[in-house]
Design a protein that fits this description.
The chain is mostly helical and 160 residues long. The chain has one domain: Ferritin, CATH 1.20.1260. Helices cover 75% and strands 0% of the residues. It is built from 5 helices and no strands. Helix 1 packs across helix 3. The chain is elongated and about 55 Å long. The termini are far apart.
Length: 160
């Protein structure tokens, strides 16, 4: 870790940096999955889903930057290379053989739900470690993630 005048104990910062980097890998993967869906969606609701998937990706991109900057603010190194993300993501691989709109909605909503659960666990972990700022950061990500999950799932409920 790099020296910093941040008053969180070094042990706390080290553990929070690990937690932030784990969710950073997931967020970068989720952003790439969202773009994959955006580029490859087909079907009668193409334009609506194409635009929605892009909005999901843009929102995730904002959180990627926030996560990475928090890592570095705590004296860590943000691990955001493709190789680091490939080693570090805990998300399932996105299906590359789908094109139909609702199939992408289903796959992307599953990824958002998985990410959301891990971010909520990170809220609790950061709080237990005594880093209220990182817990708050994760809370904001969770709130946005839940909103986009709702937007996606609304398409799935329409077919029931």
């Amino acid at each position: 870790m790099f020296d910093t005048r941040n008053d969180l104990p070094a042990n706390t910062r080290s553990k929070v940096i690990e937690l932030l980097n784990a969710r950073l890998a997931d967020a970068i993967d989720l952003g790439a999955q969202s773009k994959h869906a955006h580029w490859n969606v087909k079907g009668p609701n193409f334009i609506a889903l194409h635009e929605l998937f892009d909005k999901v990706a843009e929102n995730v991109e904002e959180h990627i930057d926030t996560l990475a900057e928090r890592v570095t603010a705590l004296g860590g190194t943000a691990h955001g290379t493709i190789a680091a993300v490939s080693r570090g993501t805990s998300l399932r691989a996105y299906p590359e053989d789908i094109s139909e709109g609702l199939a992408h909605v289903d796959a992307l909503s599953a990824a958002l739900a998985d990410f959301g659960a891990k971010v909520r666990a990170a809220i609790d972990a950061a709080a237990r470690l005594g880093d209220a700022d990182s817990a708050d950061l994760f809370t904001g990500i969770s709130r946005d993630n839940d909103q986009y999950l709702w937007f996606l799932e609304a398409h799935l409920h329409a077919k029931r």
